[in-house]
């Protein structure tokens, strides 16, 4: 009996411990993949958990982060930093709430965002009857962009140009390239915004590459419809030094007795001489003057030739030599014009575009007869306005410009060049420009220095104050950090004008950097860096 009583007490105590003191539920870990299959998403993008649960992010591709907050506005709760494929990051959430997060490189541009919702556990509610919802129309899906990876060009020891094509298919699309030493890539180019519904070329220059290495790359396009990836391609960088790399490009400014020969050159790390061979056969027979080039990047090479025969086919090619060897570009041809004929014109981009004025530009070859040239312009391709005619003669190409005023601010204008002589009338293609707003930040251009001596020079630039009182000066020095400035000048108005400043106390045989800087109530603008070398 005594034994039975003890047994009953033990069973009752066990029941009390099980009923009165329940064990807490164990924490659960929820998994999220970062950039699965190189897609710019978190998968899943939203998870719902309870206090005490964990979220574990695992990187499916490189170059991403999980950062709390909204794109561009981190709130400091957590930040994994940018990680590579295979990395993991875990966080425990102890309080209820909604926690948005994003990828630092791809949140703002590409919508790579996610949400963690932490809710308190509650009993399962009794379901209530609901009416059968009416079917809703299926929304039309947004088409993803169409992209194609094209071969790389301008491949040098430490740089290259990546190429592709993209069709945004009617939705604003972010386009970029992934590249690296493997098909995991690891590096990306800057985002480019593309709109419209047509196929267009896309390219990006990359630097900082290793010499004599094979790189993989592909184009990526992302819009609200999804992400598209071009096929993988490869290129191999050049060795650090070697024979020059040359390409013969089409001739330009072809007239009756003259032309401009063009090519591209990479000296390949060694001092290189470059010229063009040309003649009426592939034996050539004539050579342009030698030009000296150095460095390890591609640059355009051009040479003007004259004394040609009219209406004749000429062959030409680029030739470059350094201590590692000589290379020849492919053969190309052009045909000179007849002695006389209709004028030849090209509409060039407008310049000095201000709020109410602009300069229209073109190239003209009168083609051996006196020619009259003018511009048509207006807010539609019907134009409606013309500039005053200008008279030109000769048989070579010459620049033609016309200043126009009385324009409307912030307006798109069309224009083209028109030229006539006794042999006919020729019209250039339509081109457009948009005038500036009535007021805004100053517009500046750094121009070449002049009057350079052993100890002094005159710095030059162009300025449009853009409708507000503007201060302008030049920064100059031995590096692009400059360090010295010219006195301030004050300018007003809404047209371009030349700005100049004389500087003294320079060292002889020294290269100096300089740029123009202007400020008004709408902001500060800096011109590009230019250099000059004292005598």
Description:
The protein is mostly beta strands and 535 residues long. Strands 12, 13, 14, 16, 17 and 18 form a six-stranded antiparallel sheet that branches. Strands 21, 22, 23, 25, 26 and 27 form a six-stranded antiparallel sheet that branches. It has two helices and 45 strands. It is globular, with a radius of gyration of 34 Å. Mean pLDDT is 90; it is low at 1-25.
**Average of the residue pLDDT scores:** 90
Rounded Rg:
34 Å
How is the main sheet built? 6 strands, antiparallel
Low-confidence stretches: 1-25
Percent helix:
under 10%
First-residue to last-residue Cα separation? 121 Å
Number-wise, the strands total: 45
Shape estimate: globular
Question: Which band does the percent of strand residues land in?
Answer: over 45%
Count up the helices. Answer: 2
Label the structural class. Answer: mainly beta
List keywords for this structure.
535 residues; mainly beta; 2 helices; disordered N terminus
Topology:
Blueprint: H1 2-20, E1 29-34, E2 42-43, E3 46-49, E4 54-59, E5 67-70, E6 73-79, E7 88-92, E8 97-102, H2 107-110, E9 113-118, E10 146-153, E11 159-167, E12 173-180, E13 187-188, E14 192-194, E15 200-207, E16 214-223, E17 226-229, E18 233-236, E19 245-252, E20 259-266, E21 272-279, E22 286-287, E23 291-293, E24 299-305, E25 313-322, E26 325-328, E27 332-335, E28 344-351, E29 358-365, E30 371-378, E31 385-386, E32 390-392, E33 398-404, E34 412-421, E35 424-427, E36 431-434, E37 443-450, E38 457-464, E39 470-477, E40 484-485, E41 489-491, E42 497-503, E43 511-520, E44 523-526, E45 530-533
Parallel strand pairs: 1-4, 3-9
Antiparallel strand pairs: 1-2, 4-7, 5-6, 5-8, 8-9, 10-11, 11-15, 12-13, 12-14, 12-16, 16-17, 16-18, 19-20, 20-24, 21-22, 21-23, 21-25, 25-26, 25-27, 28-29, 29-33, 30-31, 30-32, 30-34, 34-35, 34-36, 37-38, 38-42, 39-40, 39-41, 39-43, 43-44, 43-45
